[in-house]
């Protein structure tokens, strides 16, 4: 049962009891108890009716009385403005909003969510579609033109020898040098094991023999003839032996821990380091750069390269079964995402700054648009009919208003009791006689 029904029930009960007490008072006018109950119920009924009238007058016309009633419908603009001002300035003041927002751990919640979803792998997968979309919107010819202009402006500032040394050092640390040597050794091994290679070696020996014999005297040529006749100089066996030795050497080159492999890498890095200090090499490279950049085909070449790169980056499967949207782009992006993810998790100061930045940004946005709160309340309440507005106020303060009605009957009864006792035991026996004595 709601308080409105309770208030109506209370007033109805008081009225019924009052009627009963009035009947008893008519038949027993001199009975003290009957007069007491009648007086108290009369006061309670008057108090209940008065408060019912007052509460009802806030929303509508009680008993058709139109003077200073229907307070909310008649003053709807003032009510709406007061409610909007209260919501905007008190309930949702910018300082209160900021205090609430500052309690929210935005970054911690975001980190926990991302960690549950997979951490850097999840972030990379989420970033890839946006990055692919951005790359796909680029125009290769415009990028090629801009890149060509940039190369023209800055080509003389590049020290290719030092760049080559830095790139080779990075490639060595990343294992790309070893991968290249592995492929080189594998290719040479396949080539050296072919029968055609053996024939080349035999022909090479034949050329050496012919050169030596033609340049030698008659005695040497005679001796060489005897050696061949006695099978002392077998070029096929020599070619087989050299081919086997070549294969063994290449197999050693395939072993990353072999001294031959280490010597080759050291020699390669030394040569690259020497190029970095070679002024003549740098001058030749600069001349080559100037000559190449002056060629008209360079822009079209860059455009084709950029177009190929864009197609590879935006391809849906990347040719690996579609497990990753673009494996090449994924491999390029994931290490950086993982690096910054670990850095963010370990840097509490950075997280605090990021959280403060989010709070400041949100509060700045809310402050700039804070008037929208009041405007939203005004627009919403303005669409209400008078009945809807009354119902809105009743929903928010109806219980308290109904308690006023209930208290009216209760307080009226208490006041009636006190007044009856005052009249019965003090006013009638003492004050009335005194007054009567002064009346002639």
Find the structural class using helix and strand composition: mainly alpha
How confident is the prediction overall: mean pLDDT?
81
Beta fraction: under 5%
* Total of helices: 20
Quick take:
The protein is about 85% helix and about 0% strand.
Structure description:
There is one protein chain. This protein has helices spanning 3-27, 32-59, 71-74, 76-91, 94-102, 106-117, 120-136, 140-154, 160-174, 176-192, 195-215, 218-229, 235-254, 259-277, 279-294, 297-314, 327-346, 348-368, 371-382, 386-438. It is mostly helical and 440 residues long. It has a domain at 3-74 and 384-438. α9 (160-174) runs antiparallel to α14 and α11 (195-215) packs across α13 (235-254). The two termini are 60 Å apart.
How is the topology of this model organized?
Elements: H1 3-27, H2 32-59, H3 71-74, H4 76-91, H5 94-102, H6 106-117, H7 120-136, H8 140-154, H9 160-174, H10 176-192, H11 195-215, H12 218-229, H13 235-254, H14 259-277, H15 279-294, H16 297-314, H17 327-346, H18 348-368, H19 371-382, H20 386-438
């Amino acid at each position: 049962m709601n308080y409105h029904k309770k208030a109506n029930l209370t007033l109805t009960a008081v009225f019924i009891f009052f009627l009963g007490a009035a009947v008893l008072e008519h038949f027993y006018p001199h009975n003290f108890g009957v007069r007491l109950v009648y007086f108290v119920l009369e006061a309670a009924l008057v108090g209940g009716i008065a408060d019912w009238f007052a509460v009802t007058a806030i929303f509508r016309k009680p008993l058709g009385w139109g003077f200073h009633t229907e307070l909310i419908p008649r003053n709807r603009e003032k009510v709406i403005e007061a409610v909007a001002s209260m919501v905007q300035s008190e309930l949702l003041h910018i300082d209160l909003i900021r205090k609430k927002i500052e309690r929210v751990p935005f970054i911690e919640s975001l980190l926990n969510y991302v960690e549950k979803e997979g951490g850097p792998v999840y972030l990379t997968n989420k970033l890839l579609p946006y990055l692919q979309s951005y790359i796909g919107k680029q125009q290769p010819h415009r990028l090629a033109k801009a890149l060509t202009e940039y190369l023209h402006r800055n080509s003389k500032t590049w020290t290719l020898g030092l760049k080559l040394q830095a790139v080779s050092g990075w490639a060595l640390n990343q294992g790309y040098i070893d991968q290249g040597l592995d492929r080189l050794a594998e290719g040479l091994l396949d080539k050296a094991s072919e029968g055609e290679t053996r024939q080349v070696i035999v022909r090479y020996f034949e050329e050496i023999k012919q050169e030596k014999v033609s340049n030698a005297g008659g005695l040497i040529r005679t001796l060489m003839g005897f050696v061949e006749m006695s099978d002392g100089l077998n070029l096929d066996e020599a070619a087989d032996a050299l081919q086997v030795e070549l294969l063994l050497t290449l197999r050693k080159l395939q072993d990353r821990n072999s001294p031959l492999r280490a010597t080759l890498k050291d020699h390669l890095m030394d040569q690259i380091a020497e190029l970095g200090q070679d002024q003549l090499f740098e001058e030749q490279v600069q001349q080559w750069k100037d000559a190449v950049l002056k060629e008209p085909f360079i822009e079209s070449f860059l455009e084709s390269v950029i177009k190929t790169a864009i197609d590879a980056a935006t391809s849906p499967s990347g040719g690996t079964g579609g497990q990753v949207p673009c494996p090449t782009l994924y491999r390029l992006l994931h290490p950086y995402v993982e690096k910054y993810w670990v850095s963010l998790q370990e840097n509490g100061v950075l997280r605090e700054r990021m959280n403060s930045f989010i709070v400041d940004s949100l509060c700045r946005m809310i402050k700039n648009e804070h008037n929208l709160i009041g405007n939203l309340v005004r627009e919403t309440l303005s669409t209400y009919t008078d009945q809807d507005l009354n119902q809105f106020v009743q929903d928010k303060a109806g219980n308290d208003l109904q308690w006023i009605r209930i208290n009216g009957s209760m307080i009226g009864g208490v006041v009636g009791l006190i007044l009856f006792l005052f009249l019965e035991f003090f006013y009638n026996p003492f004050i009335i006689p005194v007054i009567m004595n002064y009346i002639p």
